[in-house]
Amino acid sequence: MKKMNFGLSALGVAIGFAASGIALNVSAAGPTLSEADFENAKTIYFQRCAGCHGTLRKGATGKNLEPVNTQKLGQERLEKIITFGTEGGMNNFDDIMTPEEIKLMATYVQMEPPVPPEMSLALMKERHHVFVDPKDYPDKPLHGRNWENFFLVIERDVGKVAVIDGDTKEVVAHIPTGYAVHVLKAAEHHKTLHAKNPGRFWYTQGRDGKLTKIDLWQNPD
Q: Does pTM surpass 0.85?
């Protein structure tokens, strides 16, 4: 089985969820954690929760988890939600987290979320890794496959996107992407950019901030 090495451009943007020196801003009557427990909870949240609830807990596919909302639910109710999940679609975590971790996370989401450090545009440009310069993009497909019948499948847990040939049912590539990618987007859905060849370029963005551009016209091995 042949594999394709598609040209891709990656813009590494380190969200840096594990920021150091973050103050634990909670009210005197609010829940508290030791520095070690807070750091542990922050890591668990990034790995298990941020994809749905957002890095700043403002909500995405999951609900807003800012203290103004979570403190109304309270420790016991939050522990039950994390343990058993919800009818709205959140899965149970009692087979993923220990009881101690569930208790920890119930406390953590009642505290102010740490703010991740921002990266400057200059540093983004410095870390911009170009595999194929745009001026060198091919003006026609460099392979004989029916690229318009390719399927792109997110392999979230391994940080890759699989490219599957819909005609032959072959997996022709596993392309490295950012951490915990949830969505693939194409340029033709942009409001101002108009793609000449719809379906050729695809973009992913990982939870770590890494943006990847995938070109389906590039040459296979």
A: no
